[in-house]
Amino acid sequence: MQTTINCGGKEVPHNTVPWRVATNRYTNCDGTAWGWIEGAPGNVCWTNETKKFDREKARAVVAEHNRWLEEQKPITLRIVEATERANAARRKAEAARQEADKCDAALDAALGEVERLESLRDEASNLNSTTPDVA
Asked: Is 0.85 topped by the overall pTM?
C-alpha cells in the first residue's frame, strides 16, 4: 500500500483528511499564481512561476490523494455512502418531476385561458361585424 505521494519531488505522507488546492490572493512578483495544498501534512506549496509543481500538478496530486483516501474506506461504508447519494438524487429527481407536473398544469391552465379569451374576442368581433351601422 502506498503511504506517500510525490508532490513535485517531495514525498508527502497520506493522511486521513481530504485535500484541496488553495490559492493565495496575492500573486508572485511576476504576477504568477501560487498557493498550497490544504489538508496535506507539512508545507506543500505550488507555484505557476515554474512548471516543476504548478497548480495543475497540485490538482492532480490532490485528486490522487482523495481517490486513495476514498479507497481506504471499507467497501460496506462506501456502499452506504453511495446508497445515501442515490437516495438523495432520487428525492431530488422526484421533486423535480412534481415541479414539472405543476408547471405543466399551470401551462395548460394558462393556454386554456388564452383560448377562452380569444374565443370571447372572436365572438365579440363577429357580433360587431354582423350588427348594421345605425348612423
From this structure: no
